[in-house]
Design goal:
Blueprint (H helix, E strand, L loop, with lengths): L1 H12 L1 H18 L4 H9 L11 H4 L5 H10 L6 H9 L4 E9 L6 E5 L6 E6 L5 E5 L9 E5 L1 H11 L13 E8 L18 H36 L4 H15 L2 H13 L19 H39 L2 H8 L4 H18 L2 H10 L2 H6 L5 H11 L2 H29 L7
Antiparallel strand pairs: 1-6, 2-3, 3-4, 5-6
């Protein structure tokens, strides 16, 4: 018992560093891959349309200025080093939660900056040593506000990073004052940031969509295990009979068709003809229906997506149960039990079945992530606004906060699922050693 406890404690303690490694790797990949929302916005500012090359500022018709580029970099978390931004996302370092900026006109030492979300302003006075002071105007409070000064050299670094070398930074670049409020608002504080596109908290967007994916995940899990376990046992008992052959043809035919392809066929040949809704989770008038009407409406919307969820899982789980059970029925201990007078039925259910469930137990944890994460393509095809569709759209739009948020949850569920699989295996087979 002590060995088992120590084993699971070690597994649980390995979850945080493993999750840290996964998120860090994905963060690095996203930053290294070219393109993305900032590149698209920068192209618009530089007058570059699709399939157009780099043009000079005079040719572009747009006057791209350093302060515009610095603001754009700040909006997309590109104004600091990647290491700093990752630590801010993690919650180890404070991140800017509100900020505003203004230029020092004609290299003046004073600049007035508007406070975000209000008409109040503050005065920023810069000093020759690079520091600055902040003073409220007309009684404006400066509590919680800090200031940073961005010199022309600081802006030049960002300019060289994002603007092609053929376009030089304007010579009349002046100092820039930026006031900001910062706090620890990362993963360790339960904050996942805000969506770049929708400006909504990522955690809220996930919570709103999680119940939908949970519904499909739980129903799928119940149907898969509730149908495939008995079906696999019956196929074993009736091996090589017409029932075994017919059921194998059906399950493998379903397995051969990708779920997203089947979904497209169901949309065209079933839903488009009015037998079931074309998509969505519930109807618009769902709240006005009676209890029975709501149940019926939910079933009508869920029927086709559930078929797509189940077709692949049915074949894999059914054949896994059958093959594992047949392997144990051929073992010496089962043949010995039958030779001593134990009926074939008792040999199956009392001796072979429990050992046959070990491979099935290893799949329990893997289904936990599927339980919540759902399927991107199925939710996309049937326009189900769940967790999977949220991930799909975030990938297309390169919405990094949503990608990192959904990835963190999916990775955490996968790691917890692995521990659950070990627990399930230990329950099914007490002889398992955890040394």
């Amino acid at each position: 018992m002590r060995e088992v406890k120590e084993y699971f404690i070690r597994r649980i303690l390995l979850i945080p560093p493993t999750l840290l490694g996964i998120t860090l790797l994905v963060f690095i990949i996203m930053r290294a891959v070219p393109g993305g929302p900032m590149h698209e916005d920068l192209k618009k500012l530089m007058g570059q349309g699709e399939n157009k090359g780099v043009r000079s500022r005079e040719q572009s018709g747009f006057n791209l200025k350093p302060d515009m580029l610095v603001k754009l970099a700040g909006d997309y978390d590109r104004d600091k080093s990647n290491t700093r931004h990752y630590l801010e996302w993690l919650g180890v370092m404070p991140r800017d939660v509100s900020k505003s900026a203004a230029l020092f006109e004609n290299n003046s030492y004073d600049a007035e900056v508007n406070i975000p979300g209000s008409t109040a302003t503050v005065k920023v006075t810069r000093k020759d040593d690079g520091t600055a002071s902040i003073t409220g105007l007309n009684g404006t409070s400066t509590d919680g506000w800090k200031v940073r000064i961005q010199s022309p050299q600081d802006q030049l670094k960002i300019w060289k990073k994002w603007v092609p070398g053929a376009i030089g930074m304007p010579a009349d670049t002046t100092y820039r004052a930026e006031i900001y409020q910062s706090r620890f608002a990362g993963l360790l504080q339960g904050k996942l940031g805000k969506s770049m596109r929708y400006q909504d908290p990522v955690s809220l967007m996930i919570r709103e969509r999680m119940p939908i994916s949970l519904f499909y995940g739980i129903v799928t899990l119940i149907l898969v295990y509730g149908v495939c376990l008995p079906l696999g046992i019956i196929k074993t008992i009736k091996h090589r009979t017409w029932f075994d052959n017919a059921s194998s043809i059906i399950v493998f035919a379903g397995y051969a068709v990708p779920s997203y392809a089947l979904g497209s066929l169901l949309i065209v040949y079933v839903c488009a003809k009015g037998f079931f809704p074309m998509g969505g989770f519930i109807s618009e008038n769902f709240g006005d229906l009676s209890l029975w009407g709501q149940i019926k409406d939910l079933f009508n919307h869920a029927a086709m997506p559930l078929i797509c969820y189940l077709v692949g899982s049915f074949a894999m789980m059914t054949m896994m149960v059958k093959n594992s059970l047949m392997e144990h029925l051929a073992a010496d201990y089962v043949r010995t039990a039958v030779a001593k007078g134990v009926s074939f039925k008792n040999a199956v259910f009392r001796h072979a079945l429990r050992n046959s469930l070990i491979p099935i137990a290893t799949t329990v944890g893997g289904n936990v992530s599927i339980l919540v994460a759902g399927s991107m393509l199925i939710e996309k095809i049937f326009d189900i606004n769940g967790f999977g569709l949220l991930q799909f759209n975030a990938l297309l739009e390169r919405d990094e906060p949503i990608i990192m948020g959904t990835l963190t949850i999916a990775a955490l569920l996968m790691l917890i699922g692995n521990v659950i699989s070990d627990v399930a295996v230990a329950i099914v087979d007490p002889k398992i050693s955890f040394k």
